[in-house]
Amino acid sequence: MQERITSQQWQPGDLLPSEQALSEEFGCTRATVNRAMRELSDAGLVERRRKAGTRVVQPSSHPATITIAIIRQEIENKGQTYKYLLLERLEALPPEDVRVQLGLEQNEKALFLKSLHYGDGIPQQLDVRWINLSALPQAADESFADIGPNEWLLQRVPHPNIEHVFRAEKATAEEQRLLQLQECEPVFVIERRTWILGQGITYVRLVHPGSRFQMATRSSAEPIFN
Predict the structure, then answer these.
(1) Is residue 155 part of a domain?
(2) Per residue in 73-87, pLDDT tens?
(3) How far apart, in whole angstroms, are the C-alpha atoms of residue 161 and residue 64?
(4) Residue 66 lies in a domain
(5) How many CB atoms lie within 10 A of CB 130?
(6) Using CA atoms, how far apart are residues 155 and 68, in angstroms rounded to an integer?
(7) In this structure, are strands 161-170 and 122-131 parallel, antiparallel, or unpaired?
(8) N or C terminus: which one in the chain shows less Cβ crowding within 10 Å?
(9) 124 within domain boundaries
(10) Could you tell me if residue 12 is left (phi over 0), alpha (psi between -120 and 50 degrees) or otherwise beta?
(11) Is residue 64 part of a domain?
(12) TM segments (predicted)?
């Protein structure tokens, strides 16, 4: 059922089949289907209403303290012209720390993507990302030449569980070159891990020029990324 939602076989707003119909299709008890429905509801993928059935949740902001922003929208909301550039795409064995974060087997490959996001021709964010192909096999067929992985993932997995780590760091030589940084200019890094029902979806390192990035919150604790 999770795969049907993430692959959009069941679209946002769609009414799911009854528990009886699903138990017959999958050859299991209604109690098993009911438990699976509860897990999908807890993960934010479906909404269950008594006498109204279960529907796929419409995409909206994640009900966590820190949401996942769409970088294109963030740049355009500042009145800047957005540009996206894919630098690298390959299927490869991830580093050990990434493999553990995504819950992959020892020799299981993942999709690696490196991309840049610009505002008015100036680099605003370097996106270095791994995607679990076992969780999202359709990513293997996407070139990511015309759409950033950030936006692509939110269209298919609008309500993942999220873990963020924030830190200021000294830029690497590659980061300094790609982000067009001044010498010794620091970077602000966001490391994000997402998962659903215990299955890792993506692990990403987002690098921003320290002088061109700020993070603010409203009184509702809903974040704004700039």
Answers:
(1) yes
(2) 989 988 999 999 999
(3) 9
(4) no
(5) 26
(6) 12
(7) unpaired
(8) C
(9) yes
(10) beta
(11) no
(12) none
Judge contact between 33 and 17, C-beta under 8 A: no
- The DSSP string of 186-200 is EEEEEEEEEEETTEE
Q: In terms of Cα–Cα distance, which of 43, 62, 63, 45 is closest to 54?
A: 45
- Tokens at 42, concatenated: 């807890």
Taking CA atoms, 183 is separated from 118, 119, 125, 167, 209, in Å, by 20, 21, 18, 19, 12
Give the type of residue at 113: L
pLDDT tens column, 165-220: 999 999 999 999 999 998 889 999 999 999 988 889 999 999 999 887 776 655 44
SS3 178: helix
For 86, the token pair is 């894919």
**Alpha-carbon gap, residue 57 to 48, rounded angstroms:** 9
Q: How is residue 140 annotated by DSSP?
A: G
What is the CATH classification number for the domain harbouring 33? 1.10.10.10
- Structural domains of the chain, count: 2
88 and 175 share one domain: yes
User: How many other β-carbons are positioned within 10 Å of the β-carbon of residue 101?
Assistant: 20
Could you tell me which of 193, 153, 111, 162 has the C-alpha nearest to residue 7?
Answer: 153
Paired residues of 54 in beta bridges: 48
- Give me the DSSP letters along 50-79: TTTEEEEPPP---SSSS----HHHHHHHTT
Strands of the sheet containing 161-170, edge to edge, are 82-92, 110-119, 122-131, 199-209, 186-196, 161-170
Q: Which residue range is the domain that position 221 belongs to? A: 71-225
